[in-house]
Amino acid sequence: MLKHTLNRSHFSYSISYGLLTILLLFLSGCVSLNTLESGGNAILESISDLNIFTDEEETQFGKAYVAEHDKKTRIYRDPIINNYINSLGHSLVRHCKRKDIQYTFKVVDKKGVNAYAVPGGYIYIHLDLIRLAKTESELAAVLGHEIGHIVGQHSMKRLTQIYGVEILKQLILDEDSDELTKLIVDIIAAGYLFKYSRDNERESDMYGVQNIYDAGFNPEGAAKFFESMRNKQASEPSTLEALISTHPIHSERIMNVRNQIKSLPPKNGLRTDSATFRKIKRRIQ
Ligand SMILES: [Zn+2]
Prior knowledge:
The chain is mostly helical. It has one domain. The protein has 14 helices and 3 strands. The chain has helices at residues 8-27, 33-37, 40-45, 55-72, 79-93, 127-132, 136-151, 154-173, 177-189, 198-214, 220-235, 241-246, 251-263, 275-284, and strands spanning 104-108, 115-118, 122-126. Residues 145, 149, 196, 201, 204, 247 line the site of zinc ion (ZN). Zinc ion binds at residues 145, 149, 196, 201, 204, 247.
């Protein structure tokens, strides 16, 4: 577990890095005087790929949010299911592009198909999603996609983009970093950071497919899971509401995933399913 490392010097470093980036973009003409005049938020909105936070800060915010989230969420405590989901998740993490933070996978006992990633490497998956996955490679594809949001630092970029100026102001005016953590926990809880852009979704899909392929899973699982989602959306749309609200499924996504799978070199022994997965499925039916 990472130590509590939130302190002023980290922030000072990331703020100056963030401000320096803004300044450089301004000097290079990427940010115009008009955007500057229309307010600081506009500047940050035009910098969609900027993350002013360090890994330690991200972990700290995630940890604080998870402490609140888990009090209000029915976490499924069955050790067999938890060990399985963590071992599957970590078999993917070993092949992902961001290994320098600690990942934790948790199962949620709540109706509806859903999965989400919280800043700092916390990935939640609903029991109903495990039930919907027909094979282990489909489940791996979902985990790979959520890991992709952490790899792409999508929530932290969104936090920088939407609240950057407010947060910077708070940091300058307020010495109390606990207050800032509280503010960010509220922002995460409001759900704004889970409203990913199409670009974020595309990037997570891409990371996810590559990740499961590198980890030895059949990447077809990603396309197959999309199909399951589509069928479920037609037959029981309400069960997919939460997942669709943050991960809209559209034909472009399916097409991109199919094209990416086609472009991967053939590889022997790719795993589609396992006896353990089938045992897990029987246990939660
Ligand atoms: Zn997503």
